[in-house]
Amino acid sequence: MRVIIKDNYEEMSKAAAQLVKNRILNKNNLILGLATGSSPIGLYKELIKMCEKKEISFKKMKTFNLDEYYELNPDHPQSYRYFMNINLFDYIDINKKETYVPDGLAKDVDKFCSDYEKKIKSEDGIDLQVIGIGGDGHIGFNEPGTSLASRTHLVILDEQTIKDNARFFNSIDEVPKSAITMGVGTVLDTKEILLVANGIKKAKIVAQALEGPITSMVTCSAIQLHPKVTVFLDKEAASELKRLSYYNFVEKQLANMNISL
Ligand code: F6R
């Protein structure tokens, strides 16, 4: 696992975008896994700029999103499909038909989930998966206690999550009570993982996930089992890491050896 610590959110986002760019330049039909949330927005902005400057193209690429609220129309401003459109897809040269976000309106959810897994497999898997980390250590919607072997599935949201989300909707009754998410096992099967986290609010949970025990109580800790992970943090999110100076030392040595992302 490489842990790259930058001074601020902007620098963190630029460095993460550089890794994505390198992978796209290596494979123009890269299969990219995506996340929503505030953490990767800066990374997506950088990718948009790179695409506008014609440094990269998404034309041959396919994307798979981690999760989506269940029973929420994709046109709803709180849906993850809507988020992806306004934060990335609308501004890059991707074929939107090849952007896959779990179907929040799926009638037969079990079938949808197994088809989503099959679709990922049929593309020979996800080359690079972008993830964020929730305040309780979740990845996707895999809340504490979710099996580390889980596959794409329907999740009943925690009552607290429903209450927390109420501010984004007209009333608490409108807040989705469930979601479809890739499982922890689905994320572990990807060929490479890129985690972005910023802000002091993430400091403790980042340290637990990267340096604590591997446990279903912090589903992000499962990435310790993955052979190819790069973590991009700002200084605040990195501030509770025990091995902070070692991570910085490693990056200096790699730079001296001209080993980039
Ligand atoms: C979103 C997702 C979530 C977020 C996590 C962090 O698709 O999978 O696990 O990555 O909740 O959210 P932010 O980035 O808003 O702190």
Structure, explained:
- With 261 residues, the chain is of the alpha/beta class.
- The chain has a single domain, classed as Rossmann fold, CATH 3.40.50.1360.
- Helices cover 34% and strands 16% of the residues.
- The protein contains nine helices and ten strands.
- The protein has helices spanning 9-26, 41-52, 80-87, 109-122, 159-165, 184-188, 203-211, 235-238, 244-256, and strands spanning 2-6, 31-34, 62-65, 67-69, 99-100, 128-131, 153-156, 178-181, 193-197, 229-234.
- Helix 1 packs across helix 2 (41-52).
- The longest helix is centred in the N-terminal third of the chain and has 18 residues, at 9-26.
- Residues 35-39, 66-67, 132-134, 138-140 line the site of fructose -6-phosphate (F6R).
In short:
The protein is an alpha/beta fold. It has helices at 9-26, 41-52, 80-87, 109-122, 159-165, 184-188, 203-211, 235-238, 244-256, and strands at residues 2-6, 31-34, 62-65, 67-69, 99-100, 128-131, 153-156, 178-181, 193-197, 229-234.
Query: Which strands sit side by side, in order, in the main sheet?
Result: 1-10-9-6-2-3-5
Strand content: 15-25%
Q: Count of helices?
A: 9
Instruction: List the ions, cofactors and other small molecules found in this model.
Output: fructose -6-phosphate
